[in-house]
Write a structure and sequence with these properties.
The chain is an alpha+beta fold. Helix content is 41%, strand content 18%. Helix 6 links the parallel strand 13 and strand 14.
Length: 503
């Protein structure tokens, strides 16, 4: 996990790339590096959080002749599989998984992205050309803008704000080449629904999840797991515990919150080294402005869920550098309350696919910003390609039976690994289970009255501010940024749904 910056177009771009790198230091405190092409057309900048090959994997990684160089943010999970074959024709200069990107590009050109399994955003200078790409689901962030005829790229919005024009998100599953232009290389799959027994689906789910957790353990630094005591994080902790000699787990919540009690139960059951932090209202009030600044959003639901994520990441970074997180399970297995109101299985199937497509600028943005604020890498195993494909084949009737709980097939598949109380625990959003939701609303109300919120809405007539609480978060965001407009223009709304889907 790192911060990247790149530009293509002018030798003058080096100055802005270096300024962007300074704004991304929290994403990569361990090292920094830069590269400028021979004629200055392409510029790369990198802030490194050391995960693989801490001593030797510094970036940019250059080719033997120096004509090519790559910077990357993320992890290439199939690196152990592709490296042996690449070594037959290429000399590796490090043990970094990111170096595989460079040699795959030398083999396949822009179609190298089709050979990558992982989460990543990268920029690769090829002579005076530049090639930029983002992983299929947008697990890793990337944004872009224009400056005096140049294109500029960065890992966070606020690093571009005030430096470039026309700031926008770089689309997931997409690449851009300075000569070839844009190419879409991925769409969320729509595999045919298959007929299998409950036992068959459970076995296939167990196998797919176990495989992806094993792959995502890849690291030369300690790996732990966020543990809310909910189904998703508990499954990941159980699987990771089977592969790890010891496992550190992390939980946060207000005194008496359901998450803390449930997480303790799971940690005891799995015999993990468990860490928890009991939050106070003062903790939240003090951290909230910084949370909103890192999050780059004022969306009420996203901010609420970011608060516990911020604190659990802060706790985890004291012990590990990588943490597994449960993002994606609700979208793949029908875990949200409103899913139960969709009684047409085809409509529900389409909505679940839309939820996965929308993850990149809501929940995935949250987990990226909150972890990287503490120089911690978050990895979401549920969003592994094989798990997404398998989940798409499972009938929605098994995910959300008429008389059953949400994510029913996922619960059944792992019920022998976890306490019964955890397997069948009622689904709660992170902010609800940790006790944060009510505190956040109370805090906003204490800082901004309804009358003040109404006056605030009138100052921002083009922004849909849905509550006093959201007005307060919007105020925190705009006052924390020197150039708020580009960030505000890219804020996604967590609860937006297409027509025909109950709200």
């Amino acid at each position: 996990m790192c911060g990247i910056a790149a530009a293509w177009g002018s030798a003058d771009d080096e100055t802005v790339v270096r300024a962007i790198m300074d704004d991304l230091v929290h994403r990569g405190p361990d090292a920094s590096g830069s590269y400028v092409s021979a004629r200055g057309t392409g510029t790369l900048g990198h802030r490194r959080l050391s995960i693989m090959d801490p001593g030797g994997g510094h970036q940019p990684i250059r080719s033997g002749d120096g004509r090519r160089a790559v910077i990357a943010n993320g992890e290439i999970y199939n690196f152990p599989d592709v490296r042996p074959e690449l070594e037959e024709r290429h000399r590796f200069r490090s043990l970094s998984d990111s170096e595989a990107i460079l040699h795959l590009y030398e083999e396949f050109g822009p179609s190298a992205v089709e050979h990558l399994d992982g989460m990543w955003a990268f920029a690769l200078a090829d002579g005076e050309d530049l090639f930029v790409a983002r992983d299929p689901l947008g697990i890793k962030p990337l944004y872009m803008g224009r400056r005096n005829g140049s294109l500029v790229f960065a890992s966070e919005l606020k690093a571009l704000a005030g430096r470039v024009d026309d700031v926008r998100e770089f689309p997931p599953g997409t690449s851009w080449h300075s000569t070839r232009g844009w190419e879409r290389f991925y769409e969320v799959p729509e595999p045919p629904v298959e007929d299998d027994s409950v036992e068959g689906w459970c076995a296939r789910l167990r196998s797919a999840m176990d495989d992806c957790v094993a792959r995502q353990r890849m690291s030369d630094v300690p790996v732990g797991a966020f543990l809310s005591g909910g189904l998703d994080s508990s499954i990941l902790a159980a699987l990771l515990r089977r592969h790890a000699g010891e496992l550190h787990t992390f939980a946060v919540g207000l005194e008496g919150s359901g998450d803390l009690a449930a997480a303790r139960m799971v940690a005891d059951h799995l015999d993990t080294i468990h860490h928890e932090h009991v939050l106070t209202r003062e903790d939240i009030a003090q951290a909230l402005p910084e949370i909103v600044w890192h999050l780059e959003s004022f969306d009420q639901d996203l901010v609420r869920s970011a608060v516990p994520c911020w604190f659990v990441a802060r706790l985890a970074c004291e012990h590990v550098t990588v943490a597994l997180t449960g993002e994606g399970a609700d979208e793949l297995f029908a875990g949200y309350d409103y899913h139960a109101a969709i009684d047409d299985h085809e409509v529900l199937r389409d909505e679940l696919r839309r939820c996965v497509e929308a993850l990149h600028d809501v929940n995935l943005q949250r987990v990226d910003r909150m972890t990287m604020a503490h120089s911690l890498e978050g990895r979401p195993p549920f969003l592994d390609d094989a798990v997404i494909d398998l989940a798409g084949r499972i009938p929605t009737q098994l995910k959300l039976p008429e008389e059953g709980k949400e994510k029913w097939i996922l619960r059944v598949a792992f019920e022998d690994l976890l306490p019964e109380e955890i397997v069948w625990r009622k689904k709660e959003q992170f902010d609800q289970g940790s006790g944060m939701a009510d505190v956040a609303a109370e805090m906003a109300g204490a800082c901004m009255s309804e009358e003040q919120a109404q006056a605030y809405r009138e100052r921002w007539p083009d922004v849909r501010l849905r509550s006093t609480e959201e007005c307060f978060y919007h105020h925190l965001l705009t006052t924390s940024l020197e150039h708020p407009e580009p960030v505000l223009a890219n804020v996604a709304r967590w609860t937006d749904r297409p027509a025909g889907v109950p709200g």
